[in-house]
Amino acid sequence: MERRDFVSNIGLTLALVCTAGLAACSKGGNDNPDPAPPGGGGGNAKLSLNLGSDLTNVGDFKISNGVIIIRVAAGNTASAFTALSSTCTHQGCTVATYNNSSKLIECNAPCGHGSRYTTTGAVNTGPASAALTAYTIKVDGNVLTVS
Which of 25, 35, 55, 85 is disulfide-compatible with 133, CB 3.0–4.6 A? Predict the structure, then answer.
């Protein structure tokens, strides 16, 4: 193989790898098989929890079934919790964690872009520009239901 052909093949290979990498990181990607419906609320229950064993302390959170639910206050009332879509509005991956110190939902891994959201779902730090969808919370005794 001549040097010119070799360099041309390397360039083409790099271009294909870069294109595939950009496509994987594009906004259209979604690793959540059950994305949140637009507008929040309504419909069937997305998540039910036993408050006797789950989310017992302020700052506790759980990510399940396309929802991040966070205990933001004491007591077993709907206002003591927030429930939002766990799908990052920037790249479609699942948000990573709730940081109780900063009171922010962080999207650090696997996306790695660093978007952060408040407990109301509003964007605190980009590159995300759209808020997380909020869901309706009902508490009946020790059972919390998100719909």
Answer: 85
